[in-house]
Amino acid sequence: QVRLTESGGGLVQAGGSLRLSCQAFGLSFSSGAIGWFRQTPGAQREFVSAIGLKTGESNVADSVKGRFTVSKDNAKNTVYLQMNSLKPEDTAVYSCAADPQRSKAPPSSLIYVYDYWGRGTQVTVSS
User: Fold this and answer.
1) What is the DSSP letter of 47?
2) What is the mean pLDDT of each run of 10 residues along the chain (127 residues)?
3) Inter-residue contact 95 to 119 (CB < 8 Å)
């Protein structure tokens, strides 16, 4: 059974940085992808970034391009989301999700292809 656990969220001032971690249990890093999504109350879940677990190829939403970077550590079964130059509009609950099988290039931004989800971690950016 795949289980994902996010960590690293918190409160930060605008312009600051945070690094989120997504540790995956029961998931092979030889195929598939892990994506990061975010959601604010009353809004739809939004794609942020994704990384192919075999290739390391990344996909980044335009809204965070140049500020957010996704990476992985196969030895730790962990995917990271480095968030720099944070803005108040980045405030959301950030969740990671796993697609264990598809090795699409670039990794998908579509919510429905991700089968397993973490519970999320709150990121709050103050102005």
Assistant:
1) E
2) 97 98 94 96 97 94 98 97 98 97 86 96 97
3) yes
